[in-house]
Amino acid sequence: MIRQPDFITKNMMEKAIEEVEKKKNLPALSRIRFESLHEGLSAQIMHLGPYSEEEPIIKRLHGFIEANGYEFDGIMPGEKHHEIYLSDVCRTKPEKLKTIIRQPIKQKKKK
Prior knowledge:
- The protein is an alpha+beta fold.
- The protein has 2 domains: 1-36, no CATH class; 41-111, Alpha-Beta Barrel (Multidrug-efflux Transporter 1 Regulator Bmrr, Chain A), CATH 3.20.80.
- The protein is built from 2 helices and 4 strands.
- The chain has helices at 10-23, 55-67, and strands at 42-48, 70-72, 82-85, 98-107.
């Protein structure tokens, strides 16, 4: 998931995809989606470093959620969290990559 500035529209994205299709053969290009996400209450944490080293940060986020009386409220069945990539992986050293890890949450029901 890559956050887009507010001025970017679905039409702009579709035109950009058309231009890229003319110049390059990128098999995954057709999988690009432009969506608005309204996830509601969420817990989030910033990860600084390579994607392969996210696990301790995700565990820390999950611990925070549990310790504060919340539980997961995934936006898609089975989804535990999602990531927003703030860095260009082609131009940023792995140790300087910035990723926001977000987990939709809801208050735990009292038993």
